[in-house]
Amino acid sequence: MAGRIVDARVIITSPGRNFVTLKLITEDGVSGVGDATLNGRELAVASYLTDHVVPALIGRDSARIEDTWQYLYKGAYWRRGPVTMSAIAAVDTALWDILGKVAGLPVYRLLGGRSREGVTVYGHANAETVGGVLEEVARYRDLGYRAVRVQTSVPGLRTTYGVGKDRMFYEPADAAIASEATWSTERYLAHTPTVFARVREEFGPELKLLHDVHHRLTPIEAGRLGRSLEPYALTWMEDPVPAELQEGFRLIRQHTTTPIAVGEVFNTVWDCQQLISEQLIDYVRATVVHAGGISHLRRIFDLAALYHVRSGSHGATDLSPVCMSAALHLDISIPNFGLQEYMRHTEETDAVFPHDYRFENGYLLPSEAPGLGVDIDEKLAATFPYRPASLPVNRLEDGTLHSW
Ligand code: EZ4
Ligand code: CO
Question: Exposed site from 60, 62, 283, 313, fewest CB < 10 Å?
Fold first, then answer.
């Protein structure tokens, strides 16, 4: 028996970047953790949990995971949205953690067990120049990675989102108030194929290559980019356009066979229902923390499986080791896993969130411990106070506010 929930703590910490974590404790002394971090809007989720969710959780049966999910989703009246769904995700994740501990099994065994040997992950090769990015790709290949995302600066632009100053620990939320960068679609479309030509030439056909467009094109521009990248056989082109208009992806599909990955900002199945059922994408990038937890993300992946769409979950540094642990249990168990993004966390972050998933031979392997196999060191967390940090926005060269 796991028993009733008797305590729920919302822990805000910033060991290099901000994280919000929910910890639930049952009457039998079993604890569970869930990630609730929403990059740049952390305190909104913390308040949602503290002010509205925690009072409703105390006294509830911790074993009723689905019922609690439905209660929080339907009971809010205001359905969907990143703040609500991150808060629900944290509760759901913590309840799966508790159930695993009570059952004495790692969560992936509760989800049906292993469907593969390991979770193939991709790393981030970023650099200002093509020469620099070739060195970064080589570094990942030498570490054993089977897949690498490649981003370079765009010549003529002062900064490019997705290209960090730090190599292994890239962090895009760079200022308390959103900073403003400049964007040029013309320069970007001319430059990007030349980068991938060099990378393919240097590394051969086997390494999986990916590229993130960060929602900065229109559908017809994305069609052109995808077509110009076809000779380099990318595994995916990510977020080519903002995805509110799901039917807009039809236009991209008509023009290119470069596979498409979308969905790091999605929070429910309704954000990708048309994208999936019309087979307009190849990978769905929703993840545990922003898409309603393990329970709801599994629903998204099940729908995707019907339409040849595979998972490709977001795994940047703003998703804490708690989210990564949960993602790995889902990734290893679902039939239609594709790829998992993996950006390393800093040593401080790893110390605040002790975990035992590990990287081996290009794969991440989920914990074998009961539950999720991750915790939060609350004392250490308290030594890293919250610091406001926002994601940047882009303006075109004439000053027009652009997407991202
Ligand atoms: O912009 O994690 O694929 N990864 C990305 C990331 C996201 C940030 C947003 O919080 O696009 O850099
Ligand atoms: Co992305």
Answer: 60
SS3 of residue 396 by DSSP:
strand
Q: Measure 209 CA to ligand 2 centroid, in angstroms.
A: 14
| Residue 290 alpha carbon to ligand 1 centre in Å | 12
For CA atoms 61, 64, 65, 69, the dihedral sign is negative
Whole-prediction pTM value?
Answer: 0.97
Handedness of CA 37, 40, 43, 48 (dihedral sign): negative
Residues with CB under 5 Å of ion ligand 2 are 212, 264
User: Which ligand is nearest to the Cα of residue 404, counting in written order?
Assistant: 1
| Structure-derived torsion over alpha carbons of residues 323, 325, 326, 332, reported in degrees to the nearest 10 | 130
The DSSP-derived string for 87-150 is: HHHHHHHHHHHHHHHHHTSBHHHHTT--SSSSEEEEEEEEESSHHHHHHHHHHHHHHT-SEEEE
- Give dist(CA 136, CA 9) in Å, integer: 40
Is position 161 annotated as part of the catalytic site?
A: yes
Calculate how far, in angstroms, residue 238's C-alpha sits from the geometric centre of ligand 2: 6
- 56-90 pLDDT, tens digit per residue, is 999 999 999 999 999 999 999 999 999 999 999 99
pLDDT in tens, 199-241: 999 999 999 999 999 999 999 999 999 999 999 999 999 999 9
- Number of the ligand 1 atom closest to the C-alpha atom of 316: 2
Q: Which residues make beta-bridge pairs with 20?
A: 12
Q: Which atom of ligand 1 is nearest to the CA of 170?
A: 12
